[in-house]
Structure formats: structure tokens, C-alpha cells
Write a structure and sequence with these properties.
86% of the residues lie in helices and 0% in strands. It has 160 residues and is an all-alpha fold. The chain has one domain. Helix 1 packs antiparallel against helix 3 and helix 4 (86-117) runs antiparallel to helix 5 (124-157). It starts with a helix and ends with a helix. The structure holds protoporphyrin IX containing FE. The site of protoporphyrin IX containing FE has 18 residues, from helix 1, helix 3, helix 4 and helix 5.
């Protein structure tokens, strides 16, 4: 296998990883809108929509793994030349932000939402917390999508 073939294969894997990671973020944003709509009409329907998203985190994680492995292979083949370029340094910082945002804000709000959905009777403080979680999750998804979009632009234009 030539170096060119290995590089191209890694780039294909990089793109598949991007589809999985960024794709779940974009689709979660859209499905969450549906979730809040259904929850307002019928709690059980809302929970069903929420359960339909349960595999998102796994897909996101697998995509990230694929991106990292393929990225490292491409860096190895190019002797880390991209690592010295401005676009890559900014990209790396933004990747860290995506991970931190996901682990701290995304996961925390997801756990909070599950707890709130487990409440049997509607209570005033539960309604308020749901509203807060809705706003936080919306901001979380929008910020992740913005970060992904900046990474796409940087990686394709490779500003230096
Ligand atoms: C959230 C994580 C990441 C996203 C969304 C992302 C996205 C992208 C995109 C859209 C491209 C352009 C593909 C093309 O030219 O067709 C690219 C290229 C590249 N990525 Fe990433 N990437 C990520 C993480 C990484 C990591 C962690 C590394 C290195 C360890 C890496 C290394 C590279 C390299 C070397 C290229 C240049 C490939 C080329 O143009 O020949 N990426 N990335």
C-alpha cells in the first residue's frame, strides 16, 4: 500500500468521523426541538422522542475516536507539518472547546433533563428547571454547531 493510499484512506475515515460527530450534534438540535414540542403536549410522547436520541452519545464518541485516529495518521505521514500552521493550532483549541463543552455542559444538562423527566407530578420548580434546561441545551447545541463550522472552514481553507 502506498503512502498516498494510506493518507487518502485516513482522510476518508476523518470525513466519516466528522459525519458521525458533527452529524449527531446537528440532528440532536433538530430532534430536541421536536422533543420539547411533544413534551408540552404529552409527557410520554416527549420521553419516547428523548429515548430515540439515546444512541447519539455513542455515535458522537465513536466519530470522535475515528477523527482522532485518522488525524494522527495524517499528521504522522505529513511529519506534523500542519501542526506548525496557524489554522491547525486554532482548530486544535476549538476541538478542545467542543470536548469540554460536551463533557461539562452537554452531559450535565442531559443528566438533569433525565432526572426532571422522572418526576411523576408536575410541580412549579420542575417546570422552571425544564425551561432552564431547554434554554441551556439549545445554547449548547448552537455553540457546538458554531465550533464545528469554524473547524470546517479552518480545515478546508487552511489559513496560515
Ligand atoms: C472535531 C474534530 C475535527 C474535525 C471536525 C475535523 C475536520 C476536518 C476537515 C473538515 C478537514 C478537511 C478535509 C478535506 O480537506 O477534505 C480536516 C482535515 C485535516 N484534519 Fe481534521 N478535524 C478534526 C480533528 C482533527 C485532529 C484531532 C487532527 C490531528 C490529530 C486532524 C488532522 C487533520 C489533518 C492533518 C487534515 C488535513 C488533511 C488534508 O487536507 O490533506 N483533525 N479536518
Amino acid at each position: 500500500m502506498t503512502t498516498h493510499t494510506i493518507y487518502s484512506t485516513a482522510l476518508v475515515c476523518h470525513i466519516i468521523g466528522i459525519i458521525m460527530m458533527a452529524g449527531t450534534t446537528f440532528s440532536d438540535y433538530v430532534i430536541f426541538k421536536q422533543f420539547w414540542k411533544q413534551l408540552a403536549i404529552d409527557k410520554l410522547k416527549g420521553i419516547a422522542v428523548n429515548q430515540a436520541m439515546s444512541k447519539s452519545a455513542l455515535l458522537f464518541g465513536l466519530g470522535f475516536l475515528l477523527i482522532i485516529i485518522s488525524g494522527i495518521i495524517m499528521m504522522y505521514i505529513t511529519h506534523g507539518i500542519f501542526g506548525e500552521q496557524t489554522w491547525f493550532r486554532i482548530k486544535f483549541g476549538l476541538i478542545l472547546l467542543i470536548v469540554i463543552n460536551g463533557l461539562i455542559i452537554g452531559r450535565r444538562q442531559g443528566v438533569k433533563l433525565k432526572k426532571l423527566l422522572a418526576w411523576e407530578a408536575p410541580a412549579k420548580n420542575v417546570e422552571d428547571d425544564l425551561l432552564k434546561t431547554k434554554r441551556n441545551l439549545n445554547l449548547f447545541h448552537i455553540s457546538q454547531m458554531v465550533l464545528f463550522t469554524i473547524i470546517f472552514v479552518l480545515s478546508i481553507f487552511k489559513f496560515n
